[in-house]
Q: What sequence folds into this?
């Protein structure tokens, strides 16, 4: 029996230590600089399972009708596949709806996670068949 109750809320300042812990818990993953995230790490959504934070993501706002959904990170100890998939789906649904409420017409995101790309049909997203490379630089 699945007693999971998934709820969403805005990320708060006090969530930062949890997010850092999650990033450090994944192999080859580092927490991004806090000031590189929207709202200094608070302009995003976190999903809780029965009050326990399990996954989060950020909405990068632009001066166009396109918003970027990025920086998805989850609790590496939240291992139940069905619960994790439900939490990812809930987060993406909430982020998509939040972007729409903010007035955006298009959303964009990048991921290496095949399970997330497999959700594209449920959301009606397009998937590019060309490889992408992420380039960053500290100015």
A:
């Amino acid at each position: 029996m699945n007693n999971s109750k998934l709820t969403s809320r805005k990320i708060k300042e006090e969530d930062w230590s949890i997010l850092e812990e999650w990033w450090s818990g994944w192999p080859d993953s580092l927490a991004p600089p806090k000031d590189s995230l929207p709202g200094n790490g608070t302009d995003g959504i976190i999903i809780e399972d029965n009050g326990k934070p399990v996954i989060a993501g950020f909405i990068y706002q632009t001066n166009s009708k396109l918003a970027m959904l990025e920086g998805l990170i989850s609790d590496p100890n939240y291992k139940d596949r069905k619960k994790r998939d439900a939490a990812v789906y809930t987060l993406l649904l909430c982020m998509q709806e939040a972007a729409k409420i903010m007035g955006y017409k298009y959303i964009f995101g990048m991921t290496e996670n095949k399970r997330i790309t497999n959700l594209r049909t449920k959301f009606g997203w397009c998937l590019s068949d060309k490889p992408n490379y992420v380039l960053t630089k500290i100015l």
